[in-house]
Design a protein that fits this description.
Blueprint: H1 3-26, H2 46-53, E1 57-62, E2 66-71, E3 76-80, E4 95-100, E5 106-111, E6 115-120, E7 125-129, E8 144-149, E9 156-161, E10 165-170, E11 175-180, E12 194-200, E13 207-212, E14 216-221, E15 226-230, E16 245-250, E17 257-262, E18 266-271, E19 274-279, E20 293-298, E21 305-311, E22 314-319, E23 324-328, E24 343-348, E25 359-361, E26 364-369, E27 373-378, E28 393-399
Antiparallel strand pairs: 1-2, 2-3, 3-4, 5-6, 6-7, 7-8, 9-10, 10-11, 11-12, 13-14, 14-15, 15-16, 17-18, 18-19, 19-20, 21-22, 22-23, 23-24, 25-26, 26-27, 27-28
Length: 403
């Protein structure tokens, strides 16, 4: 191990220690989970099994220690840790069951470490929770326990919330970011250090997706090109070097990128059905053995990958055959393979072939099965798995969100 690598690992250890302390603080306080559970479905009558199997959730997102989901009727529900008001119910009380966020209907939601943002039917954007770095975009740094509107625009299409910054795309294809900009993760240059209102990233009008990591951001444009910017301390920008970028830089020249997901200091994407990862690899989160990679490396030879999720130091992806696979850090069971062993190659999550809905992973994972609703696993320190306990799970457990 070189001195440089040793220094990187020591710095990583210090970062991890700080994160553990923060997680302990987040999960402090009481939490009584009374989410409607469907464990024990096998013992239910046929009619009951049919009712339980019907999916009631259309999308899901995993935050630091909370979970949010949009039900099939457009209702938004959040549960788990609520130390900064990230559940959006007007309090900082941890919730024992999915709690509806107001009475509005929603089309898109994403959870950061301690804040949440979502797009309402009608195209308005709302955020709530921790706001120390302006990540709520409401012009302040005041923490909010209920949704606050981001500006007055009614053309927001989708949003992605990182640990301390947020990015969103409008229906005109423009990209906007706000919050912490210490590592130029907003894509607008080195200034401002903190932006508490949305700033447009360049002038392009062809952005179709965006993902926010700890200190970097990536996005896909129409035509399937991939762009990343911000910190490249571990090669997470995929540009073949460790140089940071203050504005979007294209990752190679290939087209065909259909999805990208940013973790703490790594990134994974799907290109023409093949799976690629790059950046830090201390837990095997790239799906290969060895050290960090500064350019995309293909994971296996399969070309049937269709959905990717990554956050913290874990990655998950689904295939067109409906199977689900996870890899990387697994200390809390977030790989979902029944162990707590870190995995440097994709490990299949159970034997189900119906994982064709939403997918999200941080230190816990959640995904939607078309035959049996919402399932979550991994870290449960804040009750974010919805199983009535704060005990970690190394395999998926089913939880029903009210329709």
């Amino acid at each position: 191990m070189s001195g440089y690598q040793d220094g990187r690992l020591r710095a990583r250890w210090r970062r991890a220690t700080r994160l553990l302390v923060a997680a302990a603080a987040m999960s402090a306080g009481s939490l009584v989970l009374t989410a409607t559970l469907t464990a024990g479905t096998a013992n239910a009558a046929p009619a009951q099994r049919a009712a339980l199997a019907a999916p009631t959730v259309s999308s899901v997102t995993a935050g630091g220690a909370h979970t949010c989901a949009i039900s099939t009727d457009g209702g938004l529900w959040c549960w788990g840790s609520n130390y900064a008001g990230q559940l959006g119910d007007g309090t900082t009380t941890n919730r024992s069951a999915p709690t509806r966020v107001g009475t509005a209907t929603w089309t898109n939601v994403d959870a950061g470490s301690g804040h949440t943002c979502a797009v309402r039917t009608g195209g308005t954007l709302w955020c709530w929770g921790s706001n120390f770095r302006g990540q709520l975009g409401d012009g302040s740094t005041t923490t909010r326990s209920a949704p606050v509107q981001v500006g007055t625009a009614t053309t927001w299409a989708r949003v992605d919330a990182g640990p301390q910054h947020t990015c969103a795309i409008r229906t005109d294809g423009t990209l906007w970011c706000w919050g912490f900009n210490r590592t130029t993760q907003l894509g607008v240059g080195a200034s401002p250090y903190v932006a508490n209102t949305p700033l447009q990233v360049g002038t392009a009008t062809d952005w179709v997706s965006v993902t926010t990591g700890y200190g970097h951001t990536c996005g896909v444009r129409t035509g399937g090109t991939l762009w990343c910017w911000g910190s490249s301390s571990d090669g997470q920008l995929g540009l073949g070097n460790l140089a940071p970028q203050t504005a979007p830089a294209q990752v190679g020249t290939a087209t065909g990128w259909t999805g990208v997901a940013a973790g703490y200091a790594h990134t994974c994407g799907v290109r023409s059905g093949a799976l690629w990862c790059w950046g830090e690899n201390g837990y095997g989160q790239l799906g290969v053995t060895g050290s960090y990679r500064t350019a995309p490396v293909q994971i296996g030879t399969a070309t049937t990958w269709n959905r990717i999720a990554a956050s913290s130091d874990t990655s998950c992806a689904s295939r067109t055959d409906g199977t689900l696979w996870c890899w990387g850090k697994n200390s809390a069971g977030q790989v979902g393979d029944g162990s707590t062993t870190h995995r440097s190659a994709p490990a299949q999550v159970g034997a189900a072939t119906s994982w064709t809905g939403g997918l999200a992973v941080t230190d816990h994972g959640c995904a939607i099965r078309t035959d049996a609703g919402l399932w979550c696993w991994g870290d449960n320190s804040g009750g974010q798995l919805g199983d009535g306990t704060t005990v970690n799970r190394s395999t998926p457990g089913q939880v029903t969100v009210p329709a």
